[in-house]
Design brief:
alpha+beta; ten-stranded mixed sheet; eight-stranded mixed sheet; 35 helices
């Protein structure tokens, strides 16, 4: 279609688009067109091509990808891996090829797991890139047509229709009943009503009613707008830039492992060198003999199975969380969940259902509450007073159904609204009142309408009643309808309209966090000019209050988080009153405090960090605000989990210690930026995931608490031999045997341990708490000394009984294995005694591990080929009885130490 006005191509000297875009909502549409050297008839094709070459394509560029080989090599850049490689080289250098191969296999497997998991996060920007629609309707040189979205340029005039995804940031030129769903950017559940008038310079993104932003959806109405920003200059482009520039934080577990490995490296290597020099120059060992002893120390000291066992522990956590509808995208995120101290959650669709619901009706003579939540047509109208029991709400409900363009559809048992969510809520209200919307619409056909407009703030329809009479129905902002109406319509007649009383009632409803719509109607005697003199004879029917209700399970989940010492903070683009009402319903705090995005902008990073801890609600926020909030929380040493489902959440999701995306309603951008995705969009699943995260962390601590002392006992046994000049109680290959057999059996079974009682009754651990706490250091020293004393005692007693060196060493190896078994039973129940039926019986994993160890030790001790490889001797029945008695006595000592530690800790806490 040719535009009625012939125009010349605008001259190519428009203002800088970025400058225009920043103030587009402040200036009139005519001014923006003028500054961009454009016109309602659009640009000429030649000028559009020129601007495309100048400003570039309307796309979100992908960031340069890290080469695959570099990502793979980065997995080996870890001090603990260096120690493992050193152990493998040492074992291989001494001729133990099989042992070296096993250690290298552990290193490679660990690296491959990290390589596969971490590579997935790089797809977040590509998900945002896919949000652009392929074609856009434009007006160029007075002619309508379509062009690829990538070819849109500043100054282009774009046409908008229902169902369109906005292709670029637009300053609206025309808007007729234009409603846009901006939840993907602002987080607001209600659609935005658009108009062409300018707004204040400091208006929040959700209040810029004269703008339509890229990646949002047109729900209803028609309009046109001039392009003011494309590609990375658009709002969604700015989010993409923030996401690209966000520094991914190191998870607590990785940070702790790296710090532990560095410290271990600095202690182990110099100690090995000192022992070597001591053995050669002080004890007179030949250097090959001394080197073998040092290798034995290194092999015993290096926890070569620790990375693999920790990875398996995390993988088991992933499997357990999957059963609870939480998909983990990066292994360390499992353990990070256990350290979470703050959950910063998006409101819409996460804490709330993102399904607008009518919760109350008020007319001049009656009031009623509406039960049922969400889009399922289940519930009823309940009078709030006995006098309201006979109230007739049919007129108000009829107006809500007829003056309505939405549809309610059922798909696979899930009810969905097509159109405006608030209009959909009115259809559900009709079902609850026993009226079928489709039957009403068929009986009252629409003859004409006035679409919703931001200028008049109401929608009006002209319908024919079943008796042939004509009716006018109006739905819109209550204050606009009160201005039009002169009387109050009631079932028993009419009454004078008390505008002040109604204004007070409407303000009270809005103050409770509800959105309010008013309804009016009047009969018409004849069809001519139905919309002339709208207010004449118009009767005010009453109002409806709407909420986006909290999820029932979210209320319980928030309470569970508070009991676990986890703060829940709600971040939303909604208004303060609405957000505070939801916060009170959720139980975020007794008296929740709020901070708006405008107030946040006035605070420095330091000031925000000082206030953010005491605030539960952040309202009218933008993506940049959300990112600042997460950073401020992290500045206070909080371990932050950020939940969200929109594009606006992606930068904060990536910045957070753990980002949690929504699987059903979440955008691809949010899910790809997240480390965990809730498959059921259920906030309660977060609590279950946090519980599993704490269990995983407990089990990792148990693995470390078991590994280090057992290795320490082996090392101290060899060091004692060098210091005091007696024969080594074990050879290097025997020490490696102990490590390999127990690490893949006894160490691994701790990964399967269930939760201990009270796992969610204790506060989150501090961010800076390392793997080696004071208690764990004490236990490492105590158990290492216990193991060393027992092993040396067995060694010297065996020699005193005239056993040869090989038999004495066989006894020492089996003694250490037995000690590690009883210590396993002690460490797996860390907060109470293991001397119970449950503690002694163990889990199926423990029994399986014990079976494997027992079979391995029988082979080690009695199989001829193993005797030749490891220089062992068979043990007699008296030797086995002796070892059993020693192990039982050691268990008693370990449990006595645990009891004393609990007593001392309880006294200090008291």
């Amino acid at each position: 279609m040719t535009h009625p006005e012939t125009v010349s191509p605008p001259a190519p000297h428009s203002a800088e688009p970025d400058a225009v875009a920043r103030r587009a909502h402040v200036e009139s549409a005519e001014s923006v067109l003028r500054r961009l050297d454009s016109h309602p008839a659009g640009l000429s094709p030649e000028e559009a091509a020129h601007r495309l070459a100048t400003h570039g394509a309307n796309v979100l560029p992908e960031t340069a990808r890290t080469p695959t080989w570099r990502r793979l090599l980065a997995q080996f850049n870890n001090a603990l891996i260096y120690l493992l490689l050193a152990a493998a080289v040492a074992a291989g250098g001494l001729g133990y090829v099989i042992d070296a191969t096993v250690i290298l296999a552990v290193v490679v497997i660990n690296a491959l797991v990290g390589f596969i998991q971490e590579g997935r996060a790089e797809t977040a920007l590509r998900a945002i890139h896919d949000l652009a629609p392929p074609q856009a309707r434009v007006v160029r040189q007075g002619q309508r047509g379509t062009v690829p979205v990538a070819e849109l340029v500043p100054g282009d005039v774009v046409l908008l229709e229902p169902g369109d995804r906005v292709p670029a940031d637009l300053r609206l030129v025309t808007a007729q009943g234009l409603l846009v769903d901006e939840a993907i950017l602002t987080g607001e559940s209600a659609v935005a009503e658009k108009q062409t008038g300018a707004v204040m310079a400091d208006a929040a993104l959700g209040d810029r009613h004269c703008m339509a932003y890229a990646a949002t959806w047109v729900v209803a109405g028609h309009g046109s707008g001039v392009v003011v920003a494309t590609g990375m200059a658009s709002e969604v482009g700015r989010i993409s830039a923030m996401l690209r520039d966000v520094r991914v934080t190191t998870t607590p577990l990785l940070d702790q492992l790296n710090r532990f490995a560095r410290r271990f490296l600095w202690v182990a290597l110099p100690s090995a060198v000192l022992v070597f020099l001591f053995a050669v120059f002080w004890r007179g060992y030949a250097w090959p003999q001394a080197l073998i002893a040092v290798v034995a120390i290194l092999v015993g000291a290096v926890p070569e199975g620790l990375p693999a066992v920790i990875s398996i522990t995390l993988a088991i956590g992933v499997r357990r969380m999957a059963r609870r509808h939480a998909a983990i995208r990066r292994l360390p995120a499992v353990e990070t969940l256990g350290a979470v101290s703050v959950i910063a959650s998006d409101k819409t669709g996460t804490l709330t259902r993102n399904e607008m619901t009518v919760c109350r009706l008020e007319s001049g003579a009656a009031r009623a509450t509406v039960t049922g939540r969400g889009y399922r047509p289940e519930g009823a109208l309940q009078p709030t007073r006995d006098a309201d029991a006979e109230a007739d709400w049919s007129a108000l409900i009829r107006a809500g159904v007829l003056c309505n363009d939405a549809d309610l559809v059922a798909r696979d048992g899930d009810w969905q609204v097509v159109g405006d969510p608030m209009e959909g809520a009115l259809l559900i209200l009709a079902h609850k009142a026993g009226q079928d919307p489709e039957t009403l619409r068929a009986a009252w056909p629409r003859l004409d309408e006035i679409p919703f407009g931001a200028e008049h703030r109401f929608m009006a329809t002209f319908n024919q009643a079943p008796d042939g009479r004509h009716w006018l129905f109006i739905k819109g902002a209550p204050d606009a309808l009160l201005t039009l109406c002169q009387r109050e319509a009631r079932a028993d007649g009419t009454a004078a309209l008390d505008q002040d009383a109604w204004t007070a009632r409407i303000e009270s409803i809005a103050g409770a966090g509800e959105r309010v719509l008013g309804f009016a109607a009047k009969p018409l005697e004849r069809r001519s000019s139905p919309f002339r003199n709208l207010g004449e004879g118009l009767g005010f029917l009453g109002v409806a209050g709407f909420i986006d209700p909290p999820r029932d399970e979210a209320v319980a989940a928030v309470a569970e988080c508070r009991r676990a010492g986890i703060d829940v903070k709600m971040i939303t683009g909604d208004h303060v009153s609405t957000a505070l009402a939801i916060a009170r319903d959720l139980g975020l705090a007794e008296q929740p405090r709020a901070l708006t995005g405008h107030e946040l902008e006035t605070l420095s990073a330091e000031a925000l960090a000082g206030r953010v801890g005491a605030v539960q609600v952040f309202a009218r926020t933008t993506p940049a605000h959300k990112l600042r909030i997460v950073q401020a929380l992290q500045a206070g040493d909080a371990v932050v989990a950020m939940t969200g489902d929109g594009v606006n959440d992606a930068p904060a999701l990536k910045q957070a210690d753990i980002g949690i995306g929504m699987g059903h309603k979440g955008t691809d951008a949010a899910k790809e930026a997240a480390q965990m995705v809730l498959l059921d969009d259920n906030f309660a699943s977060i609590v279950a995931a946090v519980r599993e995260g704490r269990v995983v962390h407990d089990n990792i601590r148990k693995v470390v608490a078991w590994t280090l002392p057992t290795n320490g006992g082996e090392v101290m046994t060899v060091v004692a031999a060098l210091l005091f000049g007696f024969t080594l109680p074990m050879s290097a290959v025997q020490i490696l045997w102990i490590n390999l057999v127990t690490a893949v059996t006894l160490g691994l079974v701790l990964a399967f341990e269930p939760a201990e009682p009270g796992v969610m009754a204790r506060p989150p651990r501090p961010r800076g708490q390392g793997l080696l706490t004071r208690l764990l250091v004490w236990r490492v020293v105590f158990v290492s000394l216990l193991f060393t004393g027992v092993a040396l005692g067995v060694f010297f007693l065996a020699l005193a009984r005239h056993a040869d060196l090989a038999l004495a060493r066989t006894l020492v190896v089996n003694t250490l294995i037995a000690l590690e078994v009883v210590y396993l039973f002690s460490v797996r129940i860390s907060h109470s005694t293991a001397l119970t039926w449950h503690g002694v019986m163990g889990t199926r994993a423990v029994l399986a591990g014990l079976t494997v160890v027992a079979l391995a030790q029988l082979a080690f001790t009695y199989l001829p080929v193993m005797q030749r490889l490891f220089e062992t001797r068979p043990l007699g029945a008296d030797d086995l009885a002796w070892l059993t008695g020693v192990a039982v006595a050691a268990l008693g000592v370990l449990e006595l130490e645990k009891w004393l530690v609990r007593r001392v800790t309880a006294r200090n806490d008291g």
